[in-house]
Amino acid sequence: MDQTLFQRKIRLRHLHCFMAVVEQQNLRKAAAQLHLTQPAVSKTISELEEIVGVRLLQRDRSGARLTAEGERFQAHALTVIVALERVEDALGLAHTPAIALLQIGALPTVAPDLLPLALAAFRREHPAAKVLVQTAANAPLLQALKTGEVDVVLGRMAEPQMMLGLSFEMLYVEPLMLVVRQGHPLTRQPAVSLLDIGSYPFVVSAKGTIPRHSTESFFQSRGLTMPGNVTETLSVSVARQITRQSEAIWFSPAGAVRADLADALLVSLPLSTEGSEEPVGLLLRSEGLLSPAAGAFVAIMRAAAAARRLESRA
Questions:
Q1: What's the whole-model pTM score?
Q2: Residue ranges per domain, the chain?
């Protein structure tokens, strides 16, 4: 189909319907969100696929999933919707004053570090804004970013197939740290060796995460396998409480325990973790337009990360 015919046939309702199905991954749930019937949603999606000339969604009993063509179409559809919303705000077309909305995705091990500081600065600039913070593993966060459920993700680089339509901007690099509670037996030793830590239980990140991979690499690079006496968790708060209330050793990214170390609630063991450094950064939609609120937050995060890098060099 030629470009003129495509532009004449495409409607905003097609884009809204498509994005709702992508977000819900289910036609019935998308219909409920849009206050339409399921057949109406199905018909609209079929019309859209006929207009663009390719299959955008693979639909079956388990739900609706994006095809490769759908992935590419999604980024542009979201850009159009966001652009129109910005025009509406700029011209004051909304019937009621728009409340700025900022939707952030963050890894649990990344969220405790610079995010609270950045949000405090953001709140000073946008006192009436509504802020939603979603924490999860990298994969669901990146999917939420692609579907527009979040505006920006504070996370880590993923495999190439997961980064389709996304960009990564490094903010800083952080290593693993081995931390224990105040008064732990190992804190009374002038030096700590691998042999010393082997008799204690460990708290580690869940499988499939980069901190977990770094923990396993820590042992492998030293000719060891990770012991079996571990507690796996994605929750920083759970890991913190286990560490503070037992003799466990927590293999934690530095940012997740920075405040606890500064407040002397936890202690870092003097054991080298060289080679465990991993980049943390901003993940954004490659073709997407940021809302004014999201743009302000991204600028604040960049400034906070720059200040952190200068501080680490001092």
A1: 0.70
A2: 3-91, 101-173+279-313, 176-276
